[in-house]
C-alpha cells in the first residue's frame, strides 16, 4: 500500500483578508506563497502592500480573513506563527544605546535561541554583512545603510523560515543594496522564503520567482514575469510596461 | 485670511500643531477618548477650585498688605516663576534639538528668523497659558470671595510667564554659546530641573536647619519660614520695587501695569535679539547630534535567558545608558534631600520625621516611576521588533512593568531601610506607598499608550515623522522622535493591549 504524499503547507496562505481604516485598505485579499520562493509584491502607493504585510507580521489586526504561516493559523496562535517569521521595515528601528552585538543577543533571546548558537550565528552575520568595524559601538552613530544591515542581521539571527521585507532597499547605497540582495538570495537557496515589497521594478524582475501585483487592496495578477506579460498582453515587454498596464486595467475596471 | 509666509500665517500653523499635539497626547490617539478627557478636565477644574477654596479662600479679605503678607506672596511668586523658567528652558532646548519640521523650515525660502520668532512666542504663550490655567482656581476663588481686584492676578501671571520665557531663552542661548551644542542639551535639562526644584528644596532645607532640633510641622513649613522674624528683618521696606509682583497680584493697578509691561518688553526684546541666530544654533545642534561619539564597548559572551528576562535586562540597560534619565533620577533624589536632612537631624523624634518623610518618598517614587514607565512602555525604540517577537504581549507588558518596579525598588530601598532603622511601621507604610505609587504611575502609562490600530493611518504604516523612542521623554528634548516628539503621542505604536497584536 502506498502511503499518501505528505502535504506541504505553503509558507504563507492568506484567505479573504480585509482591513479597513477610513476606507478598505485590504479588500478580500487571496494570496499563496510557496516554500522556498522569492515573492515580490508590487503595487501603486496606497495599494495595501504594507498593510497586508503588517497584518502577516502581527503588527495589525485584520478585520476579517485568515492568515496561515506554514500551516499555523497566525490569528489563533500568533506566538507559534511569529516564531518562524522575521519582519524588516524600510526604516527599521533599533536601539541607539545598544551595540549591534547586544542587539543581536537581545533578538536571539526574544526568539528563544540558545546563547552559544546565537553567538556563533551573530558573529557569522556580522562578518557576512561587513559590520565587524561597528559591532561593539552604539547603534546611534551608524549610517542608515549600516542600521538596515544590523536590522537584517537581527532578522536572520533566529533563522526564520519566512522573511518579510517592506521596501528593504530604500535609501541604501549600491554596495549595501547588493549585499542585502545577496543575503536574501542565499536564504532562498537554503530553502527559506522571502516576501518583499519594492518600488524598484528591476529588483523584482531580477530576483523574484513570482511577482504579485496588488491594487486597491486586491491581488490583481500574479505569476512569473512571463506569465504577467501574458496577462498584461498588448505587447508589454518590460516589467514596468506590464505593471503599468495591469494597474491601469484594474483602475479602468473599478 | 492670512497670507502665506507672514507672521500671522506661521502663528496659525504653530497653534494648530500645538493644539493637535496636545489633543493627541491627552487622548493617546483615540478619538473616542476626547469626550472622556473633556469630562476628566471638568472634574479636575472643579476639584481644583474646591481645593483653592480651602487653601487660599481665607486670604480673600487682604486689602492693605503688611510685610509678612508681601514676603509670603513674593515667595510663592518666586517659586512659581522658577518653575516657569524651568519649563520654558526645557521647551527652548527642545526647539534646538527636535528635528520634526526643521529641515523643511530651514530649506524653505522664508526667513528663518520669522518662523523662529513665532515659535518662541508660541512657547511663551504656552508657558504663560499653563501658568494662567494653574493659577485660575486660586484667582477665581479669591475674586469671588474678596472682590474683582483679585482678577489683576491674571495680568501678573501673564507678566511673570512672559518674563520667565525670556529668561529661559537668554539662558539657553548663553549656554549654547558658552559650552557648545553637544553639552547644552544635557546641561540645559539638568539646569531646568535644578531651577525648578532649587527654590522649593532650598526653602525647605533652610526651614529645617532653622528649626534647631525640634521637629514640628509648623517649624518646617516653608511658609512659616517666609513669615519668620529672621526673614522679615532682612526684607526690604514696604515701598520697595521687590514687592511689585506681589502688589500686582493684590490688585495694585500701577504695579500690575509695570509687571505686565516689563514681562512683555523683556520677551519681545529676547525674541528680536535671539531669533536671528536661532537657525544657526539649530544647524549646529543638528551637526552635533549627527557627530555622535563612537564609543567602542567590549564584546562578551551571549547570555542565555528567557525572553521575559531578556526584555527586563534590555530595559535596565537602556535606562542605565540614558543620560537624561540619570539626570532626572538624580533630581528625584535631590527632592529627597530635605526629608533625609530631617531624618538626620530629627533622629530622636521619630514620629514627626516619619510624618514628613513617608509622603515625600511616596511622591518621589510616583514621579520617578512615571518617567521610567513612559520610557519603557510608551518609549519603546523598536516597537515592530517587540510586536513581531514570538512572545505574548501580556508577557512583554509584564516584563516592562517589572523592569520599572525593579528600578524603583532599587532606588528607594536604601531610604526605606534607613527609615526602618528609626521605626518599622513608617518604613512599612513607606514601602507600601512607594509600591502603590509606582504601580499607579505605571498603570497610567499603560492607559495612555497608543494602540497600533489607532496609531496607524489609512496607509497601514505608522507615522514616521515622530517615531516612538526613548530619545524623547515627557520632559526632555527630543533627539529624533518624537518620541520626538512629542511627541506626538498618537504616533507611538506598541504591541496590542492583550494577548497579541493579532
Note down, in words, how this protein is organized.
The complex is a heterodimer of chains A (254) and B (502). Chain A is of the alpha/beta class and 254 residues long. Chain A has helices at residues 49-56, 78-82, 100-110, 115-128, 144-156, 174-189, 201-207, 225-232, 239-253, and strands at residues 12-20, 24-33, 38-42, 64-69, 72-73, 85-88, 162-166, 193-197, 210-215, 218-223. In chain A, the strands form two sheets. Chain A has a six-stranded mixed β-sheet, sandwiched between helices. In chain A, strands 2-1-4-5 form a four-stranded antiparallel β-sheet. In chain A, strand 1 and strand 2 (24-33) form a beta hairpin. In chain A, helix 3 (100-110) crosses helix 4 (115-128) and helix 8 (225-232) crosses helix 9. Chain A starts with 11 loop residues before the first strand and ends with a helix. Chain B has 502 residues and is mainly alpha-helical. Chain B folds into two domains: 61-290, no CATH class; 307-502, no CATH class. Chain B has 18 helices and one strand. Chain B has helices spanning 7-27, 33-56, 67-97, 102-107, 112-146, 152-209, 222-226, 229-234, 244-249, 253-290, 307-320, 323-335, 337-345, 350-378, 383-388, 393-422, 424-448, 452-455, and one strand at 483-486. In chain B, helix 5 (112-146) packs antiparallel against helix 10, helix 14 packs parallel to helix 17 and helix 16 packs antiparallel against helix 17 (424-448). Residues 213-220 and 454-502 of chain B have low confidence and may be disordered.
Amino acid at each position: 500500500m502506498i502511503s499518501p504524499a505528505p502535504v506541504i503547507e505553503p509558507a504563507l496562505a492568506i484567505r479573504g483578508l480585509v482591513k479597513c481604516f477610513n476606507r478598505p485598505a485590504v479588500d478580500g485579499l487571496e494570496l499563496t506563497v510557496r516554500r522556498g520562493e522569492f515573492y515580490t509584491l508590487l503595487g501603486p502607493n496606497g495599494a495595501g502592500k504594507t498593510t497586508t504585510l503588517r497584518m502577516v507580521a502581527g503588527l495589525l489586526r485584520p478585520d476579517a480573513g485568515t492568515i496561515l504561516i506554514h500551516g499555523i493559523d497566525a490569528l489563533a496562535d500568533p506566538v507559534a506563527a511569529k516564531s518562524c517569521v522575521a519582519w524588516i521595515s524600510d526604516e527599521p528601528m533599533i536601539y541607539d544605546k545598544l551595540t549591534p552585538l547586544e542587539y543581536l543577543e537581545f533578538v536571539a533571546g526574544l526568539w528563544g535561541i540558545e546563547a552559544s548558537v546565537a553567538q556563533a550565528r551573530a558573529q557569522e552575520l556580522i562578518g557576512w554583512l561587513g559590520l565587524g568595524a561597528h559591532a561593539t559601538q552604539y547603534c546611534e552613530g551608524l549610517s542608515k545603510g549600516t542600521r538596515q544591515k544590523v536590522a537584517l542581521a537581527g532578522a536572520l539571527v533566529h533563522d526564520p523560515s519566512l522573511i518579510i521585507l517592506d521596501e528593504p532597499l530604500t535609501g541604501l547605497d549600491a554596495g549595501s543594496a547588493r549585499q542585502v540582495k545577496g543575503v536574501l538570495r542565499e536564504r532562498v537557496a537554503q530553502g527559506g522564503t522571502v516576501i518583499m515589497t519594492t518600488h524598484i521594478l528591476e529588483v523584482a524582475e531580477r530576483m523574484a520567482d513570482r511577482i504579485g501585483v496588488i491594487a486597491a487592496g486586491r491581488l490583481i495578477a500574479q505569476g512569473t514575469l512571463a506569465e504577467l506579460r501574458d496577462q498584461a498582453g498588448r505587447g508589454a515587454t518590460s516589467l514596468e510596461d506590464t505593471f503599468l498596464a495591469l494597474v491601469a486595467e484594474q483602475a479602468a475596471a473599478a | 485670511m492670512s497670507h502665506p509666509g507672514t507672521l500671522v500665517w506661521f502663528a496659525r500653523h504653530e497653534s494648530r500643531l500645538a493644539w493637535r499635539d496636545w489633543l493627541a497626547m491627552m487622548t493617546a490617539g483615540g478619538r473616542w477618548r476626547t469626550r472622556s478627557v473633556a469630562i476628566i478636565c471638568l472634574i479636575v477644574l472643579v476639584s481644583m477650585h474646591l481645593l483653592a477654596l480651602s487653601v487660599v479662600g481665607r486670604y480673600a479679605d487682604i486689602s492693605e498688605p503688611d510685610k509678612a503678607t508681601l514676603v509670603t506672596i513674593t515667595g510663592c511668586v518666586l517659586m512659581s516663576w522658577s518653575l516657569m523658567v524651568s519649563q520654558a528652558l526645557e521647551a527652548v532646548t527642545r526647539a534646538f534639538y527636535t528635528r520634526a519640521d526643521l529641515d523643511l523650515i530651514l530649506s524653505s525660502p522664508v526667513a528663518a528668523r520669522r518662523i523662529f520668532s513665532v515659535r518662541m512666542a508660541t512657547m511663551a504663550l504656552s508657558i504663560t497659558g499653563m501658568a494662567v490655567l494653574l493659577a485660575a482656581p486660586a484667582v477665581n476663588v479669591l475674586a469671588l470671595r474678596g472682590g474683582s481686584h483679585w482678577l489683576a492676578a491674571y495680568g501678573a501671571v501673564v507678566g511673570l510667564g512672559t518674563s520667565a520665557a525670556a529668561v529661559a531663552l537668554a539662558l539657553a542661548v548663553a549656554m549654547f554659546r558658552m559650552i557648545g551644542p553637544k553639552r547644552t542639551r544635557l546641561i540645559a535639562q539638568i539646569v531646568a530641573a535644578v531651577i525648578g526644584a532649587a527654590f522649593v528644596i532650598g526653602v525647605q532645607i533652610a526651614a529645617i536647619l532653622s528649626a534647631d532640633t525640634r521637629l514640628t510641622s509648623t517649624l518646617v513649613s516653608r511658609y512659616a519660614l517666609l513669615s519668620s522674624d529672621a526673614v522679615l528683618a532682612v526684607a526690604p521696606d514696604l515701598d520697595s520695587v521687590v514687592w511689585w509682583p506681589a502688589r500686582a497680584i493684590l490688585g495694585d493697578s500701577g504695579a500690575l501695569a509695570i509687571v505686565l509691561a516689563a514681562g512683555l518688553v523683556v520677551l519681545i526684546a529676547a525674541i528680536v535679539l535671539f531669533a536671528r541666530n536661532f537657525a544657526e544654533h539649530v544647524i549646529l545642534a543638528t551637526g552635533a547630534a549627527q557627530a555622535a561619539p563612537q564609543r567602542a564597548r567590549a564584546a562578551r559572551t551571549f547570555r542565555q535567558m528567557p525572553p521575559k528576562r531578556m526584555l527586563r535586562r534590555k530595559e535596565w540597560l537602556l535606562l542605565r545608558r540614558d543620560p537624561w534619565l540619570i539626570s532626572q533620577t538624580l533630581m528625584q533624589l535631590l527632592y529627597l534631600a530635605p526629608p533625609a536632612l530631617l531624618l538626620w537631624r530629627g533622629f530622636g523624634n521619630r514620629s514627626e520625621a516619619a510624618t514628613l518623610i513617608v509622603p515625600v518618598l511616596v511622591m518621589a517614587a510616583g514621579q520617578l516611576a512615571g518617567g521610567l514607565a513612559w520610557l519603557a512602555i510608551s518609549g519603546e525604540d523598536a516597537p515592530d521588533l517587540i510586536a513581531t517577537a514570538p512572545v505574548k504581549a501580556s508577557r512583554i507588558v509584564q516584563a516592562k512593568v517589572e523592569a520599572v518596579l525593579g528600578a524603583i525598588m532599587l532606588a528607594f530601598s536604601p531610604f526605606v531601610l534607613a527609615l526602618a532603622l528609626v521605626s518599622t511601621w513608617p518604613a512599612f507604610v513607606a514601602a507600601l506607598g512607594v509600591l502603590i505609587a509606582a504601580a499607579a504611575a505605571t498603570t497610567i502609562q499603560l492607559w495612555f499608550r497608543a494602540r497600533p490600530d489607532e496609531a496607524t493611518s489609512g496607509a497601514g504604516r505608522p507615522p514616521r515623522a515622530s517615531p516612538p523612542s526613548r530619545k524623547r521623554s515627557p520632559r526632555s528634548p527630543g533627539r529624533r522622535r518624537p518620541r520626538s516628539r512629542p511627541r506626538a503621542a498618537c504616533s507611538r505604536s506598541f504591541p496590542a493591549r492583550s494577548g497579541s497584536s493579532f
